[in-house]
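Most newcomers find our protein records easier to grasp once they have seen one. To make this concrete, we reproduce a full record directly below:

…
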Amino acid sequence: MQTPDTYKRYQRQTILPGFGDAGQYKLLSGRVLVIGAGGLGCPVLQYLAAAGVGVIGIADHDTVSLSNLHRQVLYTMEDIGKPKAEMAAEKLRALNPELIYRVFNEAVTTNNIIHIIKEFDVVVDGTDNFATRYLVNDACVLMDKPLVFGAISRFEGQVSVFNVPSGLDGACIHYRDLFPNPPKEGEVLNCADSGVLGVLPGIIGSFMANEVIKLLTGLGKGLSGTLLTFNALTNESMKWQLQKRLDSDGLVPSSVAALQQRDYSWECGMPSDGIEIDVATFEVMLKEGNVALIDVRELDETPELKRWVHQKIPLGTLMKGEGTFYAKQIVFICQSGKRSLTAANWGKEKYADKKFYSLSGGLVAL
């Protein structure tokens, strides 16, 4: 071990059968990148720092907001408005100053992801949008990097390990074997739209940190080739054996140059085509009148819109044609702006004589 204090810090790990000093050295020599310092990233980062992973990368371009704090317990009220990646590194240094923290206060993109991940042994996907998930998967496949995956929604979570030979047939299963193509816009809701139980990211994130530790030390049996699901309401967990798809590797860009030519945002969503409006424009339009406001959230979603006269037509109902538009201009609104953008694009294609808009950022932006 490095110092007497280092020995004391990790002593409860090193006395474990099969772990020992050798296992701790492997952790201290490990280099792990966590993409996304949000609900999943926070517990992953905390436990990896506590366990003694030598180099921890933190990639996130977002800032801390009040709505984060019920589940992103690494942050406090004093951190609101500050960069997540920088605040996370600051808190982790206070927990374990012996480690090296690499901060990437930027969004991962096709232009920078290869440069960012190349120095790390393991990549952790703690993101909450499909464009980044597919980008991270494809980059890890190209760079032959193990990928620890986690996802949460409402009361349920998923964990798996990709790009590592599985025990079934030795195949390296990756994210596109499970989800070969991105879902359609609005088909899968994010946490801002669907909600999430605050403790769930802590549970799933702990599973993810455990998988990282097993990858670095070689201990135990990992989740490669297996998808673990957990339901927080019933405490039920299930493990699903994954199979290699014959076409999955062909869905990944064939080279770094090909990856950099991909538009993952376009592939994983619908272009706004100038129909998104900001809060200031939204308020001006409502003040001027001759505009209808339609809430496309589900009927039981809260909070209720009480400031403006509006209709409530759930997106699924709307797209079945069960709605009547009396105004020439229609503004759709939802929790985060995803479903309203879907509605606006749908309306634009269906009704040439009317103008449709989506409030960018939804209720969260107000």
In short: Residues 4-267 form a domain with the Rossmann fold fold (CATH 3.40.50.720). The radius of gyration is 22 Å.
